[in-house]
Amino acid sequence: MELSGAFSAQLAAQSHEPSSLRTRNAEKAREVAQDFEAHVISAFAESMFAEIPTDGPFGGGHGESVFRSLLIQEYGKEMSQSGGIGIADNVFKEILKLQEVSQ
């Protein structure tokens, strides 16, 4: 019984949280959603770049494959931050829904 009382108190405190805290939570949720979308885009791009040989002007090898991986991650971040493909918006909405349910 004590656990449910503590849980109820926590829920009551969350429902009266200041708007600045809610704004920070929404900003953090948006950031997480964009990070997720960037990861998905990077995974798609990784499969697209997999068949391109790395023996170009930089000599290929392990160094170029590592650089390519980092470059693809940055492509994903930039694509997500500049509008993305819509995944971040849906993930953001779902995060907000989950936060409402838990409050």
Report on the architecture of this protein.
The two termini are 19 Å apart. The longest helix has 31 residues, at 19-49. This protein has 103 residues and is an all-alpha fold. The protein has helices at residues 2-15, 19-49, 61-81, 87-102. The protein contains four helices and no strands.
- Helix- and strand-based class? mainly alpha
E-strand count: 0
- The H-and-E topology, N to C, reads as HHHH
Assess the beta-strand content as a share of residues.
under 5%
Mean pLDDT: 78
Count of runs of 4 or more consecutive helical residues: 4
Shape: elongated
**Terminal Cα separation, in Å?**
19 Å
Percentage of residues assigned to helices: over 70%
Low-confidence stretches: 1-11
Main pleated-sheet profile? none
Secondary-structure topology with pairs:
Elements: H1 2-15, H2 19-49, H3 61-81, H4 87-102
Helix pairs in contact: 2-3, 2-4
Give me a quick take on this structure:
This protein has 103 residues and is an all-alpha fold.
